Amino acid sequence: MRDAIETKARILSVAEDIFSRDGFDGARVDDIAKEAGVNKALIYYYFKSKNEILDTLFSKLIEDAKTMLVKSMESTPDIYENDVYRKLFDMYIRFVSEKRKIIRVAIAESAKTDIPSPIIMELGSLIINAEIETLRKEYEKKGLHFPEDKHELLVMEFFTGLTPFLCYALYKEQWEKQYGVSEKALQDYFYQAFKKTHLMAHLPE
Fold it and tell me: How many Cα atoms sit within 13 Å of 142 on the Cβ side?
C-alpha cells in the first residue's frame, strides 16, 4: 500500500513538472511514464486519463489552499494592527511560490474559452470569500460599516488582491533574472506596492 501511495505521488509530481514545462496539451503520458520511471500501463491503472491526472492536481491545489487559509487566518487576529498583514502576505507568497508550477498550468487552462469551471475562478472564490469574511469581522470589531456592494468587493479582491499573487507565481523567476533582484528584495517591493493598492482600498475612508 505504501509503495502504491509513493508511486502515485511520484506520477503526480512528474506530471506537474511536465504540464508546467510543456503545457497540458503538449504533455504526453509516455513522457510522464518515462520520467517517473514507471510503466505507462501503471499510470492508466491509477488514472483513467491525462485529464484525470490534471483534475487530481487541481483538487490538491484547492485542498492545500483551504489548509493554508485556515492557518493564515488563525495567525492574523487583527489585520490592521502593527502591519500584521505582512504575516498574512508572507504566507500567501510562500504558498504561491511553492505551488507556482501547478498555478502556471491553472492559469493557462483557465484562459481557454471552452472551460466550464476554470480552476483559477474556483481558487479565487475560495480565497476571496475567506478574506472578505475576515475583513467583515475586522470592520465589525472596530465599529465600522462594511461595504455592501458585493460585486465591487469581488472585483477588488480578484483583480487587486488575488491576481497580483498569481502573477508573482507566474513571473517571479523571470523578474528576478531580468532585473537582477533577489527573491527577498522582490517580495519587499511587492509588499510595499500591495500596501499602496489593495490594502489601501480596504482602509476606512
Answer: 15
